[in-house]
Amino acid sequence: MDAILRTVSRNTGVTVGVILLVAVGIGYTAILGMSPEEQEALLYTVQDFLPIFMFLTLAVLLFSGFPVAFILGGIAFLFGLIGYFLDVFSLIEFFNFMPRIWFQGAENLVLVAIPGFVFMGVMMERGGIAEDLLYCVQVLLKGVAGSLAIAVTIMGTILAAMTGIIGASVTMMTALALPTMLRQGYSHSLSCGCIAASGTLGILIPPSIMLIIMADLMAVSVGSMFMAALVPGLVLAALYLIFVGVYARLRPEVAPPLPPELLNVPKGELMHGFDGKVTACGLAAVTAAVGGWIGVIPTVWATWLAIGFGFPALFLFAGPLIRKAFIPPVVLIGMIKGSILFGVATPSEAGAVGAFGVLLLTMFAGRLNFNMLQGVCHSAARTIAMIFFIIISATCFAYVYRSLGGDDIVHYLVTSAGVDSWELLILLMVMTFFLGFFLDFIEITLIVLPVFAPLVASMDFGDHIATRDIIYWFLILMAINLQTSFLTPPFGFALFYLKGIAPKEIKIQEIYKGIIPFVLLQLTGLILVMWKPNIALWLMKAVYDY
């Protein structure tokens, strides 16, 4: 028996293959023993439920640890062949993969934004921009309870607004902030929770790769999605800050104050003070703003004059630390969001603006060199290739799933359950939350969303929300819900990133304990947006006159 167990453990793949062959053999033998009428009934049953078998196969294989892209593509080909032998799928339909891959992936101009944002996130990680920003925010919040945890949360939010890359923000924050928090005696669970939760805001606060993919799938405006997600993202950040501040005030031992040596920053490092140049620029900016407000100066000219004089006044008033560590990232955020907001650039072009901006910041900081640039390009290329490989494989999977009748089965199961609009929405939110325990947000977005979003969009929520706003509201609810997929075990990727580079003294149980209150806060934010849709919709309507 021991010899058999050792052989099985050394040859797991062969063992699984043998078990599958034995199972197929037993099933085939059982089918041969049936009468023709029973065989025909079984055939019709398998044809009807083949999409369900396909989905269950995906759920099982995701636990194998094999790359998701290969699983999705392999299942698509396998069940396409099974469907051919069961006379519900034609082999010529495999040729439909190519035009769908081309138009949904290769020729899709919306997805052009992804490489730019990925490059920007990796460059920020390697360029040390975040390290300077963290120290600056700590100094500015030196008198606040739990100031370091609050600084980490604020920095994670800013990082999310700049990159939208979860892996970059969580690993960067873990490497930069966790050792400092541990040295200051912060609770392990609170430290890990702050880092993981603030890092996951990158998929909600624009520019977000997830929002781009969701908008592309549902054929809605990326800019509208960005504006609709901004306020809910900031609401979640505010909930995090309130929780950290209150918790640190009630239990000071979990978040000790900063040591004196970090507080001893000369006043001139933070603020240069007023002088003739600052006063002149400030008065000019105020004059332009007032002139535009009373109508003496055209609004467009007044806006540009106020910005043109106001920014130099702020820059000259700030001290060297603020100029170096705080203002440049804020300017980069303004470049990205401003270019989208004012129609200067599309989201795809804004990705290029962000990539170019972070290159400039790294160069001006004196940290840009060929070796670092080469490493950033290699790392970004691998990440981009992984994302597009998953998109291609998910496109094939979705086509076969729909061709086999998967949409009809889901629609029948949902409609036959007799649920109304609210019950369906709550059911989908609960199902998405639990799917997040086992699937990554990309798989949930690319596989589940196209099936359920049209169902919700066709529902009637009465006076709670207008029909034309339902799709944006539902997508933002999904985006908030999908944040939890990064924090919920066993497949919470933010937890994997954090544990991968955290010191050995950090136990996985402490990480799980730390994320619990932040997951509850995310669900609180979800309920708020479900209760008051205008939290997500008012900015979109105000900006785009929707």
Looking at the structure, what is the overall shape?
globular
Q: What structural class results from the helix and strand content?
A: mainly alpha
Rounded to an integer in angstroms, the radius of gyration calculated over CA atoms is 27 Å
- Give the uncertain stretches in residue-range form: none
Following the backbone from N to C, one meets helices and strands in this order, namely HHHHHHHHHHHHHHHHHHHHHHHHHH
For the terminal residues, how far apart are their CA atoms?
70 Å
**Biggest sheet features:** none
Give the count of helical stretches. 26
- Summed over residues and divided by their number, the pLDDT gives a mean of 77
Helix content: over 70%
Strand content: under 5%
Q: What's the total number of strands?
A: 0
Structure, explained:
- The chain is an all-alpha fold and 546 residues long.
- The chain has 26 helices and no strands.
- It has helices at 2-10, 12-32, 36-61, 68-85, 97-106, 113-127, 129-140, 147-162, 166-183, 188-199, 209-218, 222-250, 260-263, 267-270, 276-294, 299-317, 320-341, 347-364, 370-403, 406-416, 421-435, 441-457, 470-483, 493-501, 508-531, 534-544.
- Helix 8 runs antiparallel to helix 9.
- The chain is globular, with a radius of gyration of 27 Å.
